[in-house]
Structures are given as structure tokens and as C-alpha cells.
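Q: Here's a chain of 173 amino acids. Please give me its 3D structure as C-alpha cells.
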Amino acid sequence: MNSVGSIILYAIVTLVMVVCSVLTVTTRKILRAATYLLFTLFGAAVLYFMLGYEFLGGVQIAVYAGGIVVLFVFAILLTGKPADNAERLTAKSTFLGVFAALAMLGVGAWALCSRVTRMLTGAAMPEKAQETVDQIGEQLLSSGHGGYLLPFEAISVLLLACIIGGVVIARKR
């Protein structure tokens, strides 16, 4: 994983993700924003594949890049005119966005510096758990202790309620 080719691929993928992320939040056309979000999510899947997490990369593509973006586009087309431009941001919301971006940049820089320091000092890295796809599937779909079936279903009902609410609001106009 430390070959020059993988480092170049990592740099290209992260650059594409950063550019598409910025374009997602700065474009005034909502369908273009959804498309840029799709490219960002595909970039995250590529990073998962590079790290050797094939299952997580597949889930990223199937659930997020496939399902969620299609859901966003469907909701956009149902509730509004995609050709309409959004309003300009106020100075207050721009300040809050810049503040949040700088805070996240600080957190990322701290994480990177701590990782580099750990590598340079030779400190032991925490071992990653070797879970199988069967174990992950059982945890996701079990309703017992440590299972995630109830939160998964709650989120799906919440998304459905949001879509129905958007359709109702759009019909009133």
C-alpha cells in the first residue's frame, strides 16, 4: 500500500473529493450539487477499496452513491423546479460556514499530525479488528444486544416522512 502509484492515486482521489465537495456546497443549481455529491461519495468508496475494506466500499456505492443520491434527486424533482437558482447566502450564514470549515480543518490537521507523530516516534498503532462480512451482517440486522436493526428502520421511516412532507409542502404551492 505504500507504493508510489497508490500515493498518486490517493492524491488524485482526495483532490477530486475536495473539489467536488466544495462545488457541492457552492453551486446554485441543486441538481448539479447532487451530481457533485455523487462524485464525492464515489471518491470515498475508492478510498475504502484502497484501504482493503471491500465490503464498506460496496456499501458506500450501493447505499450512499446509489440509494441516497437517487433519493435526493427524486425528492428534488418532486418538490421543486430544478432550474431555479437558490438565494444568495447572508453574511451570517457565510460566517458560520467558514467557521465550521475552519473547525473541521483544525480537527483534520490535529488527526494528521498525531498520526505522523506516532509514525515518527515508532509508537504502536492500534490494531484493527478483523471482522467478517457475516459478522457485520449479523450485527446490522440483529435486534438483540449490539444490533442495529431498530436504528436502521427508524432512519428509513424518518427519510420516508421527510419525502412525504416535502411532497405535501410542494403541493400546497
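Q: Can you summarize the key feature?
A: The mean pLDDT is 81.
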